[in-house]
Write a structure and sequence with these properties.
Distance between the termini: 52 Å
Strand content: under 5%
Radius of gyration: 22 Å
Structural class: mainly alpha
Shape: globular
Length: 458
Amino acid sequence: MGPLFGIGYSDPVLVGIICLCLLFGLAFLGVRVAFAAAIAGFVGMVELIGFGPGASQVGTIPYAKTSLYALSVLPPFILIGFLAFHAGMTTKLFAAARAWIGWLPGGLAVATVMAQAGFAAVSGASTATAAVFSRVAIPEMLKNGYDRKLAAGVVAAGGTLATLIPPSAILVIYALIVEESVGALLLAGFLPGIVSALIYGAIIVLWARAHPEAGPAVKGYTWGDRLRSMPGVLPIFAVAFIIISAIYGGWATPTEAGALGAFVVLLVAITQGMRFRGLKDALMETARLTVMIFTLIWGIFIFVTFLNYSLVPQTFSEWLAGLPYNPYAVLFCILLGYAILGMFMDAIGMLLVTLPIFYPAVMALNGGEGVTREESAFGLTFEECSIWFGIIVVKMAEGCLITPPIGLNCFVVNGVRPDIPVMDVFRGIAIFFVADVLAIAALVFFPEIVLFLPDLMR
């Protein structure tokens, strides 16, 4: 008999289901996902293999998983974003976007999205992007008569672009879980991120045309003003070019590209007069965010190890692959599940919990490793499907950053701007759900958007 539940070693799937319910129950009660996963995983391991072996395996996971070379890419990517902020690069980026795009209906909002897309190219943290532009962009939009719900919603939604546009911490975590190429995934996220930004911009313009009072155009900039704004954004473009070209060209690993990018941003920050206090704040914020992500990885991999013993992923994959439905209908149900989970869990935690179950199922639908393009359920090879599914899932994870009641980016905006109630922020992001649906549909039915750069690299 099992030592905890008393249901015996012969039914590991039932133990897995019980521990999944325990995990979600703890998460809904407010326990941090990292600790909820670790508790549920430890309980399950003890039930299946006993206290001594279970505790021994759980004890080795924090070192075994966080010592992986793939994770070394996270700290430099996170550092780049915080250095850029404390060096004042974000202010110059927004000023340039305003000069070039402000004349459009809702131009300042569109400029905010494009500036956030640019900042995302040097920052892998969505919440950091939302916090930075809450300070930079919202005051300018409110000063020019923008509706505060639109101003706050734009910043919260635009911050999610950092989850796709490289360097992206979430894409690195996905690559680690499914054992996919970090470089290929980072490249794959670039075009979908740009497409998402363009769709956001188009939605804003259409909204502003229908409601001119909500987002008036800003005029008066000359071509001279626009050209003079460009030198301030060149460092960000340079860092983005270094990272993309290094990974694409193969002359540096993603970690080396991130370290080089951080070094370039540091040099620019010093030349622009960043003081020791700014450097200290950037390093401390990088350390805090890195520790938070690594703690999540510790807890989740304890649970993932237990799931492998429970046979839940394998059982679910076999059941899903045997359903007599179109693969796209099954994929739609999986994405709907992510949309619902996103209402209650943060993006990284949601991916870490679900991918060990959903990823093998999607790969089973795809036909398995070694299949040809023609034989695959989605018309893709195994490797292509892995990358394609990753980008779609990460795009879905963007949604949970602005979905009530959790919507972390919305609370970040409210934290920086307490004069804007959090309910106004949630109302402001409503139109961006339409944009996300359009973007996800484009990625699902046109996988070339995702696979273009990885295919070129190969």
